[in-house]
Amino acid sequence: MTKMEAAMRKLKVNMVWGGNRNKQWMMNLLHSGFFLMNFPNCKNVNKLFEDLNQKTGNPFEVTIRPIRKSIRARKFASILSLLLMLATQAHAETTAILTLDKCVESALEHNPSLGISNLHFQQAGFRKNAAKDAMFPTLSSSTYAALSTEQPVLTFDVKAMQPLFLGGELLARKRKSEAQENIAASETDLKKADVVYAVKRVFYEIKKTEVEVKLLEEEFIHAKKLRDAEQQLMEKDYQTQSVLLKRVAEAAEKEKALIEREQNLQYLYDLLIQLTGLDPQISYVLEDLPEVTPGAGPSSTNKGNDGLLKKLDREIAVAEQDLKIAKSKRWPKVFLVSRYRREKESFYEKNALEAGVMAQFNIWDFGVTSNEIREKRSILAEQELKKTSEIETEKLELKKALDVLSVKLKAVSISQQTLKVAEENFKNAKAKHMQGDVSDLAMNEAKIQMLQAQAEVTKAACDYWIVKAEAQRIAGAIGAEIENG
Prior knowledge:
By secondary structure, this protein is an alpha+beta fold. Helix content is about 65%, strand content about 15%.
């Protein structure tokens, strides 16, 4: 046996796969008959690949051995290199690095709720055009035909009317429609801010859940090792059954928690795809979190678009114009009228062209107009109180968010200090393990503690960025300037 043949007898390969294309070549490899592939901690390999996660890359370690004696070492190496190359290409085709900026950009372009807001803005524009068109003349016609006991009658009438004075109604309706269009624009701005915040929140929740899944995987492996160790001790009568049952329960609990976290992670990826409109057939890997620094809070120069403030001001403007429209009903309505009339009966025909001024005036309507005016005044007062109340509420929410932001920043600092201690502890445990002074389980416990500290750093950073995004959303809505946090 040559050295190369000995080296190829057992290879450990670390790889990453994700998506349908990777699944196909891996299944072909399993059924090729040329290799024996061993997967650690996996009882059903076929089921493993059937349950492939379609959204993220999946790291794995596989031991590959040739099982046909006729395969030469060089041939085996060539086939293995080809398969590894195909795996790399498939992973590159189906996996993409996803940045937060790309998520936000895609959401602003494809999110369905923003499409609805844009349609509302379009509808408001049509109403504004209709209000403007009402100031121009209208042309109408009518025809009347009848049979009577004396003779048949046919009447044809064409009339043009130009409003001259309606008590300010037309101007008020025009200004109301313009304010409604501006309200739709403000609502679109607010919806955009909400979508951006939702995307950022889901993005950071995914990063937080990913580290939780990674930690639970290590804890589950460690719990199984503890369970197996207790099993061996019990078989040698060194341990009681109650301790073994405790270890079994701990391993089962870790496995349950791991499954729940993996399901939650899949849901979060699906939610991100829905929010952003990205291609669900591509596996995405999220970019690393930005570093949290003491000056990482919202910028004091980023004032926002004042979406909520503008929306409330424009709702007050709509209420004011509604009040003017109601008051206009107390005034006469004056029109310039031009009319052509033709009447035809059995024995004569009459044509007439008329031009004049028509005035309409409500003499008495039993208090209908007065009560409508009172109602509109009440609505106007309500809108003014609503503005004051909502702005004060948002300012209070912003203050709360900034206070929480300060707490989250301190939590990040504390978790980073804890991580340094845990890393030093693991480094010492690893050195002692190499000298034989520390057992495998003790070193694994130190590793678990380090991973827990790493997870806490990531979770604290994610919580910080989520609260920061919320503070930016609120500040932008009311046009508030906030200090660096």
